[in-house]
């Protein structure tokens, strides 16, 4: 059923370029081979396909559990979405992400954990630091601008807005950093480093 993923990829990619004039800055910095933990700010429901369109191979991403209902229960798994319970988070979804990365896959994670309400970057959560340390994957920071204006949180109406995606330099944790970063405080340090990289874009 991979054609469903690629049909969505092509359809949404064309829409982003024609409707929103999607512009990619720093595409030459993209890591396109091997396991990559893509870390992005979160502005809109448009964000996962926006980031997915940076690549020509598949990506996996976390999506809130409530989306997996009715037609969504059929569609989202075919779009490589991993369900996560935002109200009662557990290690299940994080273990799935780590497993995918260890298998050499590319996974998108939003360090803030939820979409912004006002356009500002939110508080980083320790989860992405845990994933980075446990998987040892290359981290690719990305900054989205304009998606909130195109489809803000709480709205079901698409608006015309210019969208840009800026790609930052990849982060590769050293063995020393990985060994020194276990436990909640250590994971939070890595999470903050990733969020700072996104903020700098």
| CATH fold assignment | Glycerol-3-phosphate (1)-acyltransferase
**CATH hierarchy class name:** Alpha Beta
Helices and strands, in order, run as: HEEHEHEHEHEHEHH
In which range does the helix fraction lie? 25-40%
Judging from the principal axes of the Cα atoms, what is the shape? globular
* Count of domain modules: 1
DSSP helical segment count: 8
Secondary-structure content class:
alpha/beta
Number of strands: 7
* Chain-averaged pLDDT: 86
Level-2 CATH architecture: 3-Layer(aba) Sandwich
Beta-strand content bin? 15-25%
Brief descriptors of the model:
alpha/beta; 201 residues; transferase; 1-acylglycerol-3-phosphate O-acyltransferase activity; Plipid/glycerol_acylTrfase; Glycerol-3-phosphate (1)-acyltransferase; 1-acyl-sn-glycerol-3-phosphate acyltransferase
Q: What does this 3D model show about the protein?
A:
Helices cover 39% and strands 16% of the residues. It is α/β, with parallel strands linked by helices and 201 residues long. It has one domain (2-199): Glycerol-3-phosphate (1)-acyltransferase (3-Layer(aba) Sandwich). The chain has a seven-stranded mixed sheet. Strand 3, helix 3 (71-78) and strand 4 form a beta-alpha-beta unit. The longest helix is centred in the first third of the chain and has 18 residues, at 2-19. The relative contact order is 0.21. The model has no long low-confidence stretch (mean pLDDT 86).
């Amino acid at each position: 059923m991979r054609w469903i993923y690629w049909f969505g990829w092509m359809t949404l990619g064309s829409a982003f370029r024609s409707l929103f004039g999607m512009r990619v800055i720093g595409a030459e910095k993209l890591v396109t081979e091997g396991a990559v933990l893509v870390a992005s700010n979160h502005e809109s429901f448009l964000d996962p396909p926006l980031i997915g369109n940076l690549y020509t191979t598949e990506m996996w991403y976390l999506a809130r559990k409530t989306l997996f209902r009715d037609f969504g229960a059929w569609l989202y798994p075919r779009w490589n979405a991993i369900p996560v319970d935002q109200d009662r988070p557990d290690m299940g979804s994080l273990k799935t992400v780590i497993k995918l990365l260890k298998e050499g896959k590319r996974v998108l994670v939003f360090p803030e954990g939820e979409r912004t309400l006002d356009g500002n970057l939110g508080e980083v959560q320790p989860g992405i630091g845990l994933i980075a340390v446990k998987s040892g994957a290359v981290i690719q920071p990305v900054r989205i601008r304009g998606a909130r204006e195109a489809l803000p949180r709480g709205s079901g109406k698409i608006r015309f807005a210019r969208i840009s995606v800026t790609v930052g330099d990849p982060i590769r944790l050293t063995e020393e950093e990985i060994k020194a970063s276990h436990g909640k405080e250590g994971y939070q340090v890595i999470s903050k480093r990733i969020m700072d990289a996104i903020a700098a874009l």
